[in-house]
Amino acid sequence: MRRDDSDASRELTADGILQHLAEIGAGRCRITDDDLAAAPSDVSRELLVGLLTLYEDLKYERELRAVAEQNSNRLVADLRAAVTARDEFLSVASHELRTPLSALRLQSTLLSRWLAQASLGEHEAELRMHCGIMERQVRRLEMLTGELLDVTRITTGRLELHRELVDLVPLAREVVARHAVEDSHDASMIALECDASLTGRWDAFRLDQVISNLLANAIRYGQSKPILVAVRGANGAARLIVQDQGIGIADEYKERIFGQFERAVSSHHYGGLGLGLWIAKQVVEAHGGTIHVESRLGHGATFIVTLPLATPGAGEPR
Amino acid sequence: MTGEEREQLLSQVFVIESGIVFYREIPVQSVESVDLMLGRLHELSGQWPEFIEVLDLSKVLRPSPAVRAAIRAWIKKMAPRMTHMCIIVESNVIIRAVARFVAYSMDVRQVSFYDTEAEAIDAARRLRR
């Protein structure tokens, strides 16, 4: 680069150095290797080398950051597209699965009724058992597709609460009774401790789902030991407690288990989609409540849900 | 890079005596060459709690920003154990300035410059005693 007199003079004075620094700060630099070679003294040459190196290093870092940002933006866009595709797939798949499942449910119910009335001779007991298994598996399929549908409802902000005055005590009693029938081999030791009544403006269907998910978890991981379900009022809130004495949860999983498709155990050993606690958390939080777990590995788990009780003039249904 | 080229580069980094490692930089460096040679320096110096590097920069051209970034990353790992850099620059004042600038930016403060290899090694031995 050819330098004019003003360029040359900038090398030797404090003012000249400040001008170079200002250019570097503004992302420009006019120093070249030729300038370094032509510098009039060792001191000015060393200063110019320092400035040029600083400029090049800053520029390089800026370029690296820009590339990293581009990559990061592309990655985020790809991830968003993948999540959207997944949610769309889940939505379509769960909707499509519901139609044949409803038909299957109807057929299995009709078959059960027919079996109850018919005389089937020596294979009666066996047929009733197989029919019972089929009905349970259909219910399980309905529950799983329902969970998948809930994922898309929640992630797209379409979870609607139909609030009404609900008494949590009979609701909990009903869920416990239902599980005692459906999982009779496991649920014979479910104890229920309740206050007389605990009423709030809640969505009964969704709270049924929360209690059901927590109880199903307690049965699944409870190692067939006694389970306690308690519903109590305290400080203007209802507390639902589901306690098991099973395998427990390690500290590092206590937050993660409330995540989407998360589980603290291997999916090879325990069934489910890893959505029950996530859905429960979303539903509880949509009600303005909280959910957390207290547990030690090998010493069972206690899930505690707190829901605000109904107050006069409370908000309208969402 | 062929196996022969790798061996050639690795042979530029060697132990002079306990606690002193010689590193002869090649004229035009690349990120790969720097990773290979500074990796060897890291490996050789790993046997001592502290060491001195005798660095021959007499034949090198000004490194690119990418190479300087790679050098910084490696030297930062070794800086706590590297008690001194004895740098041979002969009369290359530009490289002397670049070396000082880069060393300072890596928190390596103990740097001295020499015209010849013999002077640098002597100085390293004196510092080691």
Question: Any overview of this molecule?
Answer:
- The complex is a heterodimer of chains A (318) and B (129).
- Chain A is α+β, with helices and mostly antiparallel strands and 318 residues long.
- Chain A is 55% helix and 14% strand.
- Chain A contains eight helices and seven strands; from the N terminus they run αααααβαββαββαββ.
- A five-stranded mixed β-sheet of chain B has the order 1-2-3-4-5, sandwiched between helices.
- In chain B, helix 4 links the parallel strand 4 (82-88) and strand 5 (111-114).
- Chain B starts with a helix and ends with a helix.
- The chains are: A alpha+beta (318), B alpha/beta (129).
- At the A-B interface, helix 3 and helix 4 of A face helix 3 and helix 4 of B.
What's the short story on this structure?
The complex is a heterodimer of chains A (318) and B (129). Helices cover 55% and strands 14% of the residues of chain A.
Helix content of chain B: 40-55%
Unreliably modeled segments of chain A:
1-5, 312-318
**Taking all residues together, what is the mean pLDDT of chain A?**
84
Query: Strands of the largest sheet of chain A, in order across it?
Result: 2-4-5-7-6
Shape of chain A: elongated
Count of helix runs of chain A: 8
**Which percent band covers the strand fraction of chain B?**
15-25%
How are the secondary structure elements laid out?
The complex is a heterodimer of chains A (318) and B (129).
Chain A lengths: L4 H6 L3 H12 L7 H6 L3 H76 L6 H32 L8 E4 H15 L7 E5 L4 E4 L1 H18 L5 E8 L2 E8 L31 H11 L3 E6 L5 E8 L10
Parallel strand pairs in A: 2-4
Antiparallel strand pairs in A: 1-3, 4-5, 5-7, 6-7
Helix pairs in contact in A: 2-4, 4-5, 6-7, 7-8
Chain B lengths: L2 H8 L2 E5 L2 E5 L6 H15 L5 E6 L8 H14 L3 E7 L4 H13 L5 E4 L2 H12 L1
Parallel strand pairs in B: 2-3, 3-4, 4-5
Antiparallel strand pairs in B: 1-2
